Amino acid sequence: MSRAVGDKAEELTCKYLLESGFEIIERNFYSRFGEIDIIAKRGDVLHFIEVKSGLDFERAVQNLTPTKIGRILKTSDIYLKKHALVCSYQIDAIIVVGESCEHLESITL
Fold this sequence. Notes:
Layout: H1 3-19, E1 23-30, E2 35-42, E3 45-53, H2 57-61, H3 66-82, E4 88-97, E5 100-104
Parallel strand pairs: 3-4
Antiparallel strand pairs: 1-2, 2-3, 4-5
């Protein structure tokens, strides 16, 4: 996927999140383990969000591998420690197909 396609998917996701009552805290947080596309908050819960896009839902969701989720978990732990946060959080994915976003909450290994 090109960077332009990924950027468009992230923009659509941010719009979707704002319309769904989320506050965007940070985008593209990097650690030595990887990147978290979007960090958002709704209520008292912090959401670490991976954005995946594709021609269809199945192809996009297949890219949420155990290795990728493990990297997100490690990077989210670094974010929490860096900001000295003790709070409820979850790992989410948002699948973007065309102009449509599907929110998968609390993904796990």
